[in-house]
Amino acid sequence: MIVSAEDGAADTIRPRFDAAGGIPARARLLGDEEPFVIPEDIPRLERAIEQVGAALVVIDPIMAFLSGNVNSNRDQDVRRALTPLKRMAERTGAAVILVRHLNKMAGGNPLYRGGGSIGIIGAARSGLVVGRHPEDDELRVLAGQKNNLSLPPESLAYRIETAENGAARIVYEGVCEATAQQLLRVPEDEEEKSALSEAKEFLLSELKGSPMAARQVKKNAVEADVSERTLKRAKAALGVISTKEADWSSKRVSSLSQSTWISG
């Protein structure tokens, strides 16, 4: 099952599918001609999976299919939207791949480089990063980012060639030593700046839409590999306000300048 919002079926998806040796009768495409929304349309996706006996579902990109009622930068919203998808995967036995673009933050922890809330990678059991090989501009690398159920996988190098039908085709070149951290690394003189940018991006995601308890922010920061010192610098740079719980409970948060973490 391919759920795609970015690439055209006739000029991109089907030619690439054919170039990779796919069998059209064993695949189905959703989201190309009619709307598809998560989590509302998951029952429709499940029926389609059962019709073709699909073993793999690719949703590309996940951000394009989240319901308008889901704040993609809010951990709670994202996890609630993805839970029905997880349960569907358990019922059908199909593996689900969610594709995300990288955010604009340079360097930093690979876990926090995907667009949207960190809850997306948090809900996944495995994460992979694709990037340019650090020592060979002709190669790309598929590297492990997160692995909850297994040992870290070996990174795989690959190149992109043109198939006979003119479509792009991936050719793997074997195992390589490059890691996800190396694929996203910035020059050393920019590391400190990158760490602050990462912390600011973290706070923007955590506090967008509603206040959060200080202890929870700090706990999530540790999981995202953001140091307490850098977190404090980001807090000051963004103008985040600390208030006691009783002070804000009756107030409405309406802008970033009012984003609040609770110090109680």
What does this structure look like?
- With 264 residues, the chain is an alpha/beta fold.
- Strand 3, helix 3 and strand 4 form a beta-alpha-beta unit.
- It has nine helices and eleven strands.
- The chain folds into three domains: 1-124, Rossmann fold (3-Layer(aba) Sandwich), CATH 3.40.50; 127-185, no CATH class; 188-262.
- It is 34% helix and 22% strand.
- The protein is globular, with a radius of gyration of 21 Å.
Give the spatial strand order of the biggest sheet. 2-1-3-4
Name the structural class: alpha/beta
Strand content: 15-25%
Question: What are the secondary-structure elements, in order, as H or E?
Answer: EHEHEHEHEEEEHHEHHEHE
- Overall domain count: 3
Determine the N-to-C terminus distance. 48 Å
Which architecture of the largest domain does the CATH hierarchy give at level 2? 3-Layer(aba) Sandwich
In round numbers, the mean pLDDT is 86
